[in-house]
Design a protein that fits this description.
The protein is of the alpha/beta class. The chain has three domains: 89 residues, Winged helix-like DNA-binding domain superfamily/Winged helix DNA-binding domain (Arc Repressor Mutant, subunit A, Orthogonal Bundle); 98 residues, Periplasmic binding protein-like II (D-Maltodextrin-Binding Protein, domain 2, 3-Layer(aba) Sandwich); 113 residues, D-Maltodextrin-Binding Protein, domain 2. It contains eleven helices and 13 strands. Strand 3, helix 5 and strand 4 form a beta-alpha-beta unit. Helix 1 packs across helix 2, helix 1 crosses helix 4 and helix 2 packs across helix 3.
Length: 312
């Protein structure tokens, strides 16, 4: 018998003899006769090339090698005993790993609470979080590097080819440099804002939302004056703080309190003329997305967890 072929039965016999320090009592505990136990221990020692027990007519004692081996064998048997339950838990999504890409705006609100609650419900499921823009997440899906993603887009315009669960919808809010005259104005019109230099994310990051913002300008007969593009919302807000231009950001970003920035909601933008309605600004949606075919039970459990939070 090779060392790698030692079965669990031999290790159980070793533990029984080690704990009883008597071959007869160990055999009785194992519901066996003594000779097979004695032969099994002798074969185990022969396979290992190590003496595990000192034997005399009056006593049986563990050798130093046997003493050193006993804790590891107990752990091995405990792990083996737990394997069926662990396999059932893994199949039920209670054990495993879920790799989640997320846009920064989700980190301001829902994601921290979800991570805390999900860890309490499924402590043996590891959530691996990777902050990434939508285009980077799509590339990660293609390479099999993430299991799910939290993406920003215009309402109903989630990327094709993925299952989708909408988790939030919010308006866009105007971010202005605090030192700008418009930031101090009591009344602010949309047309005034549309004439200001614009800080915006590249179109490849969120195509649907980028197009919606440009459509707002075109509907008013304006062409956006691009001052700077930036990928992360925090960076966009920082650029606004530096006076580079104005920006349209999801309302949740207002929780990112940056000195030198003033936020103005859509209802603070006055219409042009008394009979005109307040401007209808684009809205944005955040969705949890994942592949059509789910082979990861832990991912299915996480999706259901998020779905339940949305329904309650």
């Amino acid at each position: 018998m090779k060392e790698s072929q030692i079965d669990l039965r031999a290790w159980r016999q070793f533990v029984a003899v080690a704990e009883e320090l008597h071959f007869g009592r160990a055999a009785q505990r194992l519901n066996m006769t003594q000779p097979p136990v004695t032969q099994a221990i002798a074969q185990l020692e022969k396979t290992l090339g190590v003496v595990l027990f000192d034997r005399t007519r009056r006593r049986v004692a563990l050798t130093p090698a046997g003493e050193a081996l006993l804790p590891d064998v107990r752990e091995l048997l405990a792990r083996a005993q737990a394997l069926p339950q662990r396999a059932r838990a893994a199949a039920a999504g209670q054990v495993g790993r879920v790799r989640i890409g997320f846009v920064s705006t989700v980190g301001f609100e829902k994601l921290p609470d979800w991570v805390r609650e999900f860890r309490q419900l499924c402590p043996e499921v590891a959530l691996e979080l990777v902050e990434a823009t939508g285009d980077v997440q799509l590339e990660a899906f293609a390479r099999g590097e993430i299991d799910a993603g939290l993406m920003l887009h215009s309402p109903g315009a989630a990327p094709a080819g993925l299952q989708r669960l909408a988790v939030s919808e919010e308006p866009l809010t105007l971010a202005l440099p605090a030192r700008h005259a418009l930031a101090r104005a009591r009344k602010l019109t949309l047309v005034q804002v549309l004439d200001e230099p614009l800080v915006i994310f590249p179109r490849r990051i969120v195509p649907s939302l980028h197009d919606a913002i440009f459509a707002l300008y075109h509907a008013a007969g304006r062409v956006p004056q691009l001052a700077q593009e930036a990928i992360q919302m925090q960076t966009i807000v920082n650029l606004v703080s530096g006076g580079i231009g104005v920006a349209w950001v999801p309302e949740s970003v207002t929780q990112f309190r940056r000195a030198g920035v003033v936020y103005r909601a859509a209802d603070e933008l006055a219409p042009e003329g008394r009979r005109r309605a307040a401007p209808a600004l684009p809205r944005c949606e955040t969705s949890l997305v994942w592949p059509d075919e789910v082979a990861n039970p832990a991912l299915s459990r996480f999706v259901e967890f998020v779905r339940e939070r949305q329904e309650n």
